[in-house]
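job 3f2a | input accepted
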Amino acid sequence: MEHDDTKPEQTEEIVEQKIQEKHEPKQRKKNAHRKKIWWWVFIFLFTFATAFSIGLVAEAFLQTTSVIICIVLIAILILIAFLGDIVAVAVAYADLGHFNAMASRKIRGAKNCIKLVKNSDKVSSILSDVLGDVTGIISGALGVSLAFIIIVGGDYTTFQEALIIALVTACIAAVTVMVKSIAKKIAIKNNAKIVFAVGRMLSLFTRR
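job 3f2a | predicted structure (208 res):
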């Protein structure tokens, strides 16, 4: 007959370990769910703050009667969307192994690049979705304002006024889509260089 040398303390530890292992998956799911909720809250607050800030600046110029100012503001918003798309797509297509190798050689900015690539979904949400949607909505509003400035400056029929508004908003939409398409092609082709440039820039604000 075999003798069981297991002490009572050891038995209790084994039982506790098994209970802990049983509850670990549930705890992991709960933590993951909490992270998702906090991420959604962050996205809401970030979107609100971004839209409010850009909208406030844009609103200050909506009362203007200058066509040039409206066009410049629209161009700036499209440029912001362009740069956001470039970084978001570049991060999504970047190779993590490339930056791991750079980090092993202690190249400045490589660690930031690794963080960006590992969180590519979040980077894409912020830069492409949130920033892209906000700038798109506000540039559309500025486009309507631009159309009204043109209408006020001339003697047009109701049909001509509607046509001007449609043409201006269509032009803005077409340019925005074209620019974002160009951004994606540039980002895919030069993803490593773009991510490294962003990582290097972020390293200026983080400890080495």
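job 3f2a | Residues 51 and 134 are 6 Å apart (CA to CA).
job 3f2a | closed
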